[in-house]
Amino acid sequence: MSLNGRSTYPRITRGVMAIAALSLMAACTTDAPDESDQPADEPAPAATEGAVADTDSEWFVLADYERQLAQRDVTPEGPADQPWLQMIEPELVDMSEFADAAPGKTLCFANASVSNPWRVTGFITMQEQVKVLQDEGLITDFRVSDAADDDNQQISDIQAFVASGECDALIVSPVTTATLTPVVESACEAGLPVIVFDRGVNTDCMATFIHPIGGYAYGADGAEFLRDNLEPGSTVLALRISPGVDVLENRWAAAEKIFAESGLEVLGNEFTGGDGATIKDIVTQYLQRGDVDGIWMDAGDGSVAALEAFEDAGKPYPVMVGEDEMSFLRKWDETAITAIAPVYSNFQWRTPILAAQKIWAGEEVPSEWVLPQQPITADDLKAFLEANAEMPSLHYAKFGGEELPGYPDVWMNR
Amino acid sequence: MTRPVRRLGALHPLTPGGHWAAYLILVLIFVAVFWLNPSFAEPASLMAFVKKAAPLVVLAVGQYFVIVNGEFDLSVGSLVGAQVVIAAKMLNGEESRTWPVLAFMIVFGLLIGLVNGLVTTVLRVPSFITTIGMMFVLYGAIRLWTGGAPTGALSVAFRQVGRGGFASPVGQFQIPWALVVVVVVAVLAVSLMRRPFGRTLVATGDNPRAAEFSGVHHAWVTTRAFLLSGFLATVAAVLIGGYAGVTAQVGAGLEFTAITAVVLGGVVLGGGRGTVPAAIAGALTLEALFTLFNQLSVPSTLRPTVQGAIIIAAVAFAALPRRHRSRPVSGAVAPEGREPLPAAG
Amino acid sequence: MMPTRSPELEPAAQGEPLLRIRGVSKSFFGVSVLRAIDLDLVPGEVHALVGENGAGKSTLMKIIAGVHRADQGTIELDGHPITFGSPIDAQRAGVSTIFQEFNLLPERSVAENVFLGREPRRAGFVDRVEMRRRTDELFADLSITSVSAGARVSTLSVAEQQIVEIAKAVSYDARVIAMDEPTAALAEHEVELLYRLVARLKARGVAVVYVSHRLKETFDLCDRITVLKDGDLVLTTEVEQITPDELVRTMVGRDFAGYFPPKDPGHRLGDVVLELEGVGNAQVDDVHLTVRAGEVVGLAGLQGSGRTEIAHGTFGIAPFTRGSIRVASRPVRVRSPRQAVRHGIALVTEDRKAEGLALQQSVMANARLVLDAVLPATSEKRSTAIPGLLSSLELVAPSHRTEVRYLSGGNQQKVVLAKWLVTDPRVIVLDEPTRGLDVGAKRNVYDAIRRLAAQGVAILLISSELPEILAMSDRLLVLREGRVVGELPGGSTEEAVMGLATGAAHPGLPDAGPTAGVSA
Amino acid sequence: MSTAWSVTRRRHRLGSTEVVYLALLGLLALSAVLVAASGGNLFSQANLVDMLTRSSLLGMVAVGQTFVILSGSLDLSVGYVVAWSSLVAATTMAGDPARVPLGIAAALGVAALVGLANGTVITRLRVSPFIATLGVGLIIKGYLDTQYKGPAGEVPASFQAFGYSRIGPLPVSAIVMLALVAAGAVVLARTRLGHHMFAVGGSQDVARLSGIRTHRTVISAHVLSALMAGVAGVLIASRFGTGSALVYTAGYDLNSIAAVVLGGTLLAGGRGSVIGTAGGVLILGVIDTVFNILQVDPFFKDVLRGVIIIVAVAVYARRQIDPSSRRTRFPAGRTAGGEAR
Question: What is the pTM of this model?
Answer without folding.
Answer: 0.87
